[in-house]
Amino acid sequence: MRRSTPLTFWIRAVEAAALAVAVCFSLGATDASSRFNDLGHRLMCTCGCAQMLGECNHVGCPESGRERNELSAAIAAGSSDKEILASFAAKYGATVLAAPTTHGFDLVAWIAPFAVFAAALLGTILLVRRWANLSVGKTQTAIPDPANEDPADRARREKIRRETGIDGGF
């Protein structure tokens, strides 16, 4: 009889979890209404209301009804999601897509916010370090050694003590 090792158990558990996730994501993937809902939220209404096509609800919208009918017809014709998005982009322009594509120059729209955030974070860290180094340099002043002090400076300090009546905190 073959004995199961803990590693074999974990491998089987990961395989079962991956199968469960795949089944959950594939449920409803071919359902026309779920595809319509998904694609309707990946497209923008072209009337200028700045709403998703699936959520455009303003009264008298001249575009949303026609675009929804086009979307339903494309789904019924069996077009893939990529084909539908490409046909809408070809007909109405790239602004009909709710999110920029990940090809060519549109990739900048995905990378730029993270790059700007990283640059700002790096700049802030460098600025704070510089400020910390400047404040450390100002607080660490050299204490004069009376043995090596210039006689003119010693005389000036004594004159100040006599005239002000303070001892200078020494």
Describe this protein's structure.
This protein has helices spanning 6-26, 32-40, 64-76, 81-92, 107-139, 151-164. It is mostly helical and 170 residues long. It folds into 2 domains: 6-99, Cytochrome C biogenesis protein (Helicase, Ruva Protein, domain 3, Orthogonal Bundle); 107-164, no CATH class. It starts with 5 loop residues before the first helix and ends in a 6-residue tail after the last helix.
Number of strands: 0
CATH class of the largest domain: Mainly Alpha
| Coarse morphology | elongated
CATH homologous superfamily assignment of the largest domain: Cytochrome C biogenesis protein
Q: Tell me the domain tally.
A: 2
Give the key terms.
Helicase, Ruva Protein, domain 3, elongated, 170 residues, 6 helices, mainly alpha
Describe, in short, the structure shown:
This protein is an all-alpha fold.
Mind sketching the topology for me?
Elements: H1 6-26, H2 32-40, H3 64-76, H4 81-92, H5 107-139, H6 151-164
